[in-house]
């Protein structure tokens, strides 16, 4: 059926770059010039931006409280919105005592640390924060990193080497994956929260093994099945690292995270967390034994070769930690708001997947309509970030919703009604 | 003259599976780079075609492939994806001879039997070689849309590495619901694979129907 006739059929179903390709198409390419990918991606991005990508990186012009003012990426106009997109789960980052602590640190130390933590960049306030976070977590010692990303990358690559095996949940955060890449270890993904699959894969590995999980998974809001994972890892002699970025200060009677929630604090070897989620600050840390911390300090390259955490960020985190310890009612209020939103979402017919936490994905499950939904919500006063493929599987697009203790019930009620109305208008919710 | 070769199909089903990058590299020529789903996880695909018309008539074909980085050239349309078929099998000798001669595709040397089985919202294909089962792939239904997607296929023989630009046009259903299934049997056909490393559920499924596969002329990329 040779034919030398007309052009390819592809030209007859010509679609715009945004309809034809997705973000993932531009990651892998080969050829003789690395710049060859730039043109196609630029063409795609210029098409994608007005169709939805303007919703990313829109600048806030106010503090990330429950109500924000934001500069619309498409129109350039300022919009006042109910904020369901920031972490700040306990509404602490803008508390007066936190701001005052940061201001006082700037007065005392200036803008930044001006040095690596192993050289001139360690201040007394960093030591104080390390001692406080270790005490809070009930561990002998802690080491700070400039960010949570740096903590995972630096700690995993400090501990593991080529020939070792690192087992990651398939939904592990990019910082965990990047840590494994930098470690040059064998990286084996197991199905999400599936201890059976982990067991099958651990059974085929030899040598040093590390299992890495998260307390709460950031795209689904579901809780790690830690009891099953720990049991399997122990059976196979694997060490366990838990990233509690989204679960510390939220889960557990004292806020020590998923490990406290499950009563497994001593069963997990390495405890990693951040100050950027519930506390709304910046910085990451790893807690464990003193020998572990000494080793991470020596070989955690993302820490050694970065400027230390700004003293003002450390001071703010210290003040925020004090609030968490003094005011357990914040956590109680957060859980009351979570319960309220879970109930109201169910009543409105809004699917929040398997969320068991303050992170609630509003499942849109339509990769074509996700940006229209997010844009409409923004135009009606609700700020939620769209998440689509390849960050989540195809047809699993969602709006990432963060409930905080600071939201009033009026704000949450307004938001849930608006979300329900927009989903119904788009034919994505039938109730 | 720009000569196109066309193959009409009623159904094409495809499953994508993560498998160790080290295994992918063992299959690929050194010129080709496997794409990774995750770090250390390359992508293996199994595709089964039900061709209804072509210059060598109707036939069925199974293609085992590794997904690779596409070759980009300035000014040329960007392909959706690129693949390296490391083993192809058909149910007719004519189809096999045609694909070997024209496309340099590596083939299983005898006819295989391919049986499609349609159920509510699902299509499966059972491949049998030498009276023994090789593989059974099932994909499931989701939303459908008309598409015309460009791909690149890389082939090699003892002397050269080749590239063919392929367009797949038709109704496409693509999803990541993990509702499909693959059963690979221990059979010489699957000797390039470590079966225990391949999950039985595809992370992505594709089903195309009532369409046309169009090959542009083969291009030689490298002489030996």
What labels would you give this structure?
heterodimer, A: 431 residues, Aspartate Aminotransferase, domain 2, 3 domains, 7-stranded mixed β-sheet, 15% strand, disordered N terminus, B: 224 residues, mainly beta, Acetoacetate decarboxylase-like, 4-stranded antiparallel β-sheet, 8% helix, globular
Which SSEs are present, and which pair or pack?
The complex is a heterodimer of chains A (431) and B (224).
Chain A: E1 2-3, H1 17-20, H2 38-51, E2 67-71, E3 78-83, H3 96-109, H4 124-137, E4 141-145, H5 148-159, E5 165-169, H6 174-183, E6 186-190, H7 195-202, E7 209-214, H8 226-235, E8 239-243, H9 258-261, E9 270-274, E10 284-288, H10 290-299, H11 301-304, H12 311-326, H13 328-348, E11 359-363, H14 370-379, E12 382-383, E13 385-387, E14 398-402, H15 409-425
Parallel strand pairs in A: 3-12, 5-6, 5-7, 7-8, 8-9
Antiparallel strand pairs in A: 2-3, 4-10, 9-10, 11-14, 13-14
Chain B: E1 4-20, H1 21-27, E2 36-38, E3 41-53, E4 59-68, E5 81-90, H2 93-103, E6 112-119, E7 122-129, E8 132-140, E9 144-156, E10 160-175, E11 181-184, E12 204-215, E13 219-223
Parallel strand pairs in B: 5-9
Antiparallel strand pairs in B: 1-3, 1-12, 2-3, 3-4, 4-5, 6-7, 7-8, 8-11, 9-10, 10-12, 10-13
Please provide a written account of the structure.
- The complex is a heterodimer of chains A (431) and B (224).
- Chain A contains 15 helices and 14 strands.
- With 431 residues, chain A is of the alpha/beta class.
- In chain A, strand 2 (67-71) and strand 3 form a beta hairpin.
- Chain A has 3 domains: 10-50, no CATH class; 52-83 and 328-425, Aspartate Aminotransferase, domain 1; 96-326, Type I PLP-dependent aspartate aminotransferase-like (Major domain) (Aspartate Aminotransferase, domain 2).
- Chain A is globular, with a radius of gyration of 23 Å.
- Chain A starts with a strand and ends in a 6-residue tail after the last helix.
- Residues 1-8 of chain A have low confidence and may be disordered.
- With 224 residues, chain B is mainly β.
- Chain B has one domain: Acetoacetate decarboxylase-like, CATH 2.40.400.10.
- In chain B, the strands form 2 sheets. A 7-stranded mixed β-barrel of chain B has the order 1-3-4-5-9-10-12.
- Chain B is globular, with a radius of gyration of 16 Å.
- The model of chain B has no long low-confidence stretch (mean pLDDT 95).
- At the A-B interface, strand 1, helix 6 and strand 6 of A face strand 1, strand 9, strand 10 and strand 12 of B.
């Amino acid at each position: 059926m040779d034919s030398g006739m007309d052009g390819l059929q592809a030209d007859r179903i010509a679609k715009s770059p945004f309809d034809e390709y997705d973000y993932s198409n531009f990651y892998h390419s080969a050829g003789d010039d690395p710049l060859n990918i730039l043109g196609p991606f630029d063409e795609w991005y210029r098409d994608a931006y007005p169709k939805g990508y303007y919703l990313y990186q829109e600048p806030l012009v106010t503090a990330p409280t429950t109500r924000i003012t934001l500069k619309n990426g498409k129109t350039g106009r300022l919009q006042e919105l109910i904020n369901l997109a920031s972490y700040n789960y306990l509404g602490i980052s803008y508390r007066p005592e936190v701001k005052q602590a940061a201001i006082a640190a700037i007065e005392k130390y200036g803008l930044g640390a001006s040095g690596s933590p192993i050289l001139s960049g360690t201040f007394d306030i960093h030591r104080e924060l390390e001692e406080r976070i270790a005490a809070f977590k009930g561990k002998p010692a802690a080491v700070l990193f400039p960010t949570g990303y740096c903590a995972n990358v630096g700690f995993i690559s400090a501990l593991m080497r080529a020939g070792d095996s690192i087992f990651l949940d398939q939904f592990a955060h990019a910082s965990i994956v990047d840590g494994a890449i930098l470690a040059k270890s064998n990286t084996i993904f197991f199905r999400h929260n599936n201890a059976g699959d982990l067991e099958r894969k651990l059974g085929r590995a030899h040598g040093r093994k590390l299992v890495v999980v998260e307390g709460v998974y950031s795209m689904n809001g579901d809780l790690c099945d830690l009891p099953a994972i720990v049991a399997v890892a122990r059976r196979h002699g694997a060490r366990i690292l838990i990233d509690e970025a989204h679960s510390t200060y939220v889960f557990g009677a004292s806020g020590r995270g998923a490990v406290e929630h499950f009563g497994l604090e001593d069963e997990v070897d390495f405890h990693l967390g951040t100050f950027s989620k519930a506390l709304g600050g910046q910085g990451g840390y790893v807690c464990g034994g003193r020998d572990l911390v000494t080793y991470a300090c020596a070989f955690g390259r993302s820490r050694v070769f970065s400027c230390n955490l700004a003293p003002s960020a450390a001071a703010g985190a210290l003040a925020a930690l004090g609030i968490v310890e003094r005011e357990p009612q914040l956590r109680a209020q957060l859980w009351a708001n979570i319960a309220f939103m879970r109930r109201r979402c169910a009543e409105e017919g809004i699917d929040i997947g398997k969320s068991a936490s303050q992170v609630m994905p509003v499942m849109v499950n339509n990769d074509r309509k996700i940006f229209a939904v997010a844009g409409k919500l923004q135009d009606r006063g609700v700020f939620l970030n769209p998440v689509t493929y390849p960050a989540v599987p195809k047809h699993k697009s969602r709006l990432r919703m963060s409930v905080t203790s600071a939201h009033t019930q009026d704000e949450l009620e307004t938001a849930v009604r608006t979300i329900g109305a927009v989903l119904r208008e788009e034919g994505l919710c039938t109730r | 003259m720009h000569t196109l070769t066309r193959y009409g199909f009623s159904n094409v089903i495809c499953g994508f599976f993560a498998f160790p990058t080290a295994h992918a590299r063992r299959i690929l020529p050194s010129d080709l780079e496997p794409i990774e789903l995750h770090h250390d996880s390359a992508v293996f695909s199994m595709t089964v075609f039900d061709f209804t018309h072509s210059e060598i008539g109707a036939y069925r074909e199974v293609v085992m492939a590794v997904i690779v980085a596409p070759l980009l050239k300035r000014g040329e349309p960007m392909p959706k994806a690129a693949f390296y078929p490391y083993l192809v099998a058909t149910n007719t000798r004519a189809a096999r001879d045609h694909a070997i001669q024209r496309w340099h595709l590596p083939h299983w040397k005898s006819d295989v039997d391919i049986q499609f089985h349609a159920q509510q919202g699902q299509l499966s294909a059972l491949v049998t070689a030498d009276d023994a089962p090789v593989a059974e792939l099932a994909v499931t239904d989701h939303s459908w849309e008309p598409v015309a997607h460009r791909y690149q296929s890389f082939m090699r023989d003892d002397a050269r590495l080749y590239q063919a630009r392929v367009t797949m046009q038709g109704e496409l259903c693509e999803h990541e619901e993990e509702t499909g299934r693959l059963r690979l049997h221990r059979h010489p056909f699957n000797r390039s694979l470590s079966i225990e490393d391949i999950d039985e559920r595809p992370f992505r499924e594709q089903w195309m129907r009532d369409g046309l596969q169009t090959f542009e002329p083969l291009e030689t990329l490298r002489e030996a």
